[in-house]
Automatic annotation (TrEMBL):
Residues 4-254 form the Indole-3-glycerol phosphate synthase domain. GO terms for molecular function: indole-3-glycerol-phosphate synthase activity; phosphoribosylanthranilate isomerase activity. Belongs to the TrpC family. PROSITE patterns: IGPS. Keywords: Amino-acid biosynthesis, Aromatic amino acid biosynthesis, Decarboxylase, Lyase, Tryptophan biosynthesis. It is an enzyme of class 4 (lyase). This is Indole-3-glycerol phosphate synthase. SUPFAM superfamilies: Ribulose-phoshate binding barrel. Its EC number is 4.1.1.48. It comes from Rhodothermus marinus (strain ATCC 43812 / DSM 4252 / R-10).
């Protein structure tokens, strides 16, 4: 069994328990107290490379990534230092995430929030909305096309945006791109944990222009981000590189400014000629 299958199995078990404890009606009631959702796609199409900064305490491949994990403080830093959106891991067993983290981030910032989890069931979409998410991650490798379509429709109905994640061109080929607004490529193979930072460019090169393109995982240098931007990537999703920094907000800002500077430089040279 691969790690992805293992995670999916645990997620299913936990889900049954939560469904018994917390009826959907209660979640729906909670959702009434949430503000209208913030759309993710326009937040990521800024004309510059957008950054989705992730709150990630641990991962199955790296173990504990960050011990000090004050969600309101970290969310505030990410916003203050220029993130366009925040991704919050909510999976407890492998990533030490929780829905409470999502809730705490919601109370603190007005940036679009992505619920980062292994979504297999419509219940989790209702849950995402109830805890203040604006968007959910849908991992294509976990879902057959019908399931993906249903979860996508359900999220849209609740006002949530979807980031649909693939890892390969063959996964992409199986998708019906018509309804998809935001497409992410995970550079990390969730079966083997191998990372290839150029994967997103390869996989997304033929998708229609209207789709927002996101490169995910293993990114940390300005070089990598400049390369991605020059190859048409709209946004990057970064967790570990920020979480390991003493001040994640400052790390984000440093990287963002360096990328901006490097992308602006060739134009200025051209103007000078
Ligand atoms: O911490 P990194 O290497 O910067 O990666 C962030 C994000 O891409 C990663 O957490 C992720 C991408 N897709 C996922 C699916 C499930 C769990 C986690 C992920």
């Amino acid at each position: 069994m691969t790690i992805l299958e293992q995670i999916a199995r645990t997620v299913r078990e936990r889900l049954e328990e939560r469904k018994r404890r917390v009826p959907v009606s209660l979640l729906e009631e909670r959702s009434h107290y949430q503000s209208p959702t913030l759309p993710l796609a326009p937040a990521l199409r800024t004309g510059e490379l957008a950054i989705i900064a992730e709150l990630k305490k641990a991962s199955p491949s790296k173990g504990i990534i960050r011990r000090e994990f004050n969600v309101p403080e970290l969310a505030r830093q990410y916003k203050w230092h220029g993130a366009q959106a925040i991704s919050v891991l909510t999976e407890p067993d492998y990533f030490q995430g929780s829905l409470e983290h999502l809730e705490a981030a919601r109370r603190t910032v007005d940036l679009p929030l992505l619920r980062k989890d292994f979504i297999l069931d419509p219940y989790q979409i209702v849950e995402a909305r109830a805890y203040g998410a604006d968007a959910v991650l849908l991992i294509a490798a976990l879902l057959d096309p019908v399931q993906l379509h249903e979860l996508h429709a359900m999220a849209t109905e609740l006002g949530l945006s979807c980031l649909v994640e693939v890892h390969s061109e063959s996964e992409l080929d199986r998708l019906d791109l018509d309804k998809i607004e935001i497409l992410g490529v995970n550079n990390r193979d969730l079966h083997t944990f191998e990372v290839d930072v150029n994967r997103a460019v390869q996989v997304l090169r033929h998708v229609p222009e209207r789709i927002v393109r996101v490169a995910e995982s293993g990114l940390r240098t300005a070089d990598e981000l400049v390369h991605l931007r020059r190859h048409g990537i709209d946004a990057v999703l970064i967790g570990e590189a920020f979480m390991r920094a003493p001040h994640p907000g400052e790390a984000l800002e440093r990287l963002r400014r360096e990328v901006q500077r490097r992308l602006a430089a060739p134009d200025m040279l051209r103007m000078a000629v």
